[in-house]
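Service request form, structural biology core

Requester: graduate student, group of Dr. S.
Request type: structure prediction, single chain
Budget code: on file
Notes: please return the result as structure tokens.

Sequence provided:
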Amino acid sequence: MKAMILAAGRGKRMMPLTSTLPKPMLKVAGKPLLAHHIINLRQAGIVDIVINLAWQGDKIKQYFGNGEAFGVTIQYSQECEGGLETAGGILHALPLLGEHFVVINGDVFTDYDMTSLTQLNLEPGEAHLVLVENPAHNPDGDFALRHLGPDSQKYTFSGISRFHADFFKGLTPGVLALGPILREKLAEYQVSTELYLGQWDDIGTPARLDELNQRLAVK
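Core staff response, request fulfilled:
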């Protein structure tokens, strides 16, 4: 099982913090967000990791190198300057990822146990999404729990997922968003879902980053 950490985004909402730094390198509890993901993956036995790069990607390479110092193996998927969006980035990295892989947004903070994703039995072309309760900045949510039907309450996509590589079969390489593809395949019952109620934060603004660090400092 391999994992891909999405780290190519420009992070415009995090300016000026991201003027010279990629968003996943911002620190939470004294470590870059990326380091927290790598530790969580390693603890789940996932030690082959792909990180996609665009904005300030050299800073990520310089810090993590080949991953040896962190007990993992890291490969990098270099994208064009503006990035390829989520689906485009995954499609670009497919040659490095193999048949089954986990995908994590580099700009979230969570204690979700990645071990559960390694134990799923996905058929060719299927995907699995981890959903969370809706934060204040996304009150309407993104997706419903599949077993409750499309008209039930919607929850927020956590940015944590697992895919079979055939999920992306037939897609044209280039800039490509993931959301519309997920909605289409959810309707075709090719995407399963779960609701996670533990620690999860979307580091979308400097204020959210500050609030999270203050909360963790109190613990």
